[in-house]
């Protein structure tokens, strides 16, 4: 039985906090059947280029706005775009201390022969998790039988109940979306996740934060990144809902350990 669950859209080469969230959960669900948002992070991210954050984009075919993420495709000429992206990343990080170890992995992931952006991003996420020894099971929401949830909250509740989860972990931005009282009435505790400030040595100061996991790996060995995966907080004092409801859910709160048990350490 899963105790904690996290749900996120499939992002390409996301920032460190995304992988912290995966490692913190007992089950991680990719929301591949959610609507694609052009301004989101499904097919773009940021790297360090000339000591500044630079946006990189994996272009998609033009299509209907209403399509789900798993219905969107990479552009027809993506092989050319892939070479351009690889050259840009290589040029940006060729002097990084772990370039020789990380660049072949990045190049292999960018060349992965899958036009569906959801499956393409999922493959990269799984491979990055394997590289970091994160062993949390990763599922797709499109593979679950959820019926027709009326809203985002009901969708999460149904996903959680599918895995018999008692706790839903979500980034703190979800505090404006998710009603803790409503979740508590449905036997689910919501805990908001926040990444601690994490800094590491880049080429120069000042430090440029919240870049793609590519940046983290280029400047840190696997053991250092594994330690960074534990640098987060889960709020500890959720407000009370109905008398006794949250109390029962929090009788055995899960602490944030100094080393997540979803990270296999060599």
Automatic annotation (TrEMBL):
It comes from the Bacteria. InterPro entries: WbqC. It holds the Pfam family WbqC. This is WbqC-like protein family protein.
